[in-house]
Amino acid sequence: MVKYQYGTGLQTESFSIYEGNKRLKIGCLPILNDGYGGNKNYISVLNGNTMSVTVNIVLHSPDGTLVHRETRVLSANQKLDTTPSYMICRALGCTNFSGTAAIWATEPVYITTNMITPSTQDPREAFNIYEAAEPVTSILLPKIYDGYNDWVNEVYIMNVDLVDHAITIDFYDAAGNLAK
């Protein structure tokens, strides 16, 4: 997932909007910021199966420290909507959480997250939604506009294994040459 941030003034964010169209047994939500400045970062898991599914949600801080682990059983077609702060202390906005979520299910489920952000400059709330990333060993991001018209990009990489892994990140120019 790539986060685009434009300029240094309003610090607005732009995310691509998806409907959950991919069912996963393992899903990663690499960017969660819940509670800060009134933000509400929801985690949604939908069991689109005709049977019950066990779902495990594990929250980690940015340095990989385990923050919270929770197991839920979702009946057929049941949806879970929660936030990291609610999972940690059973109340919305009771704590600030910044980190990641890894979600495992006994059968494939739809996994999405969305953030509702209050604004003092606009009475409407900003709303972003994206679906969980599927763990892969290699990924290509074909367009990254870092430094172009004040755009700043952040690439988040999340390890969902129980062991450490070395990673390599290669950047290529527009002609396809490895950047130095």
Which class of secondary structure composition applies to the elements?
mainly beta
The proportion of strand residues reads 35-45%
Backbone shape: globular
Instruction: State the share of residues found in helices, binned by percent.
Output: under 10%
Q: Poorly predicted ranges (pLDDT <50, ≥5 residues)?
A: 1-20
Q: Let me know the largest β-sheet.
A: 7 strands, antiparallel
SS field, number of helical segments:
1
Mean pLDDT: 75
Using only CA atoms, what is the Rg?
A: 17 Å
What is the CA-CA span between the terminal residues?
23 Å
How many E-type strands? 10
Q: What string, H for helix and E for strand, traces the elements in order?
A: EEEEEEEHEEE
Structure description:
It is a single chain. The chain is mostly beta strands and 180 residues long. Helix content is 3%, strand content 44%. It contains one helix and ten strands, in the order βββββββαβββ. The strands form two sheets. Strands 3, 4, 5, 6, 7, 8 and 9 form a seven-stranded antiparallel beta sheet that branches. It has a three-stranded antiparallel beta sheet with strand order 2-1-10, with no helix packed on it. Strand 1 and strand 2 (12-14) form a beta hairpin. It is globular and about 50 Å long.
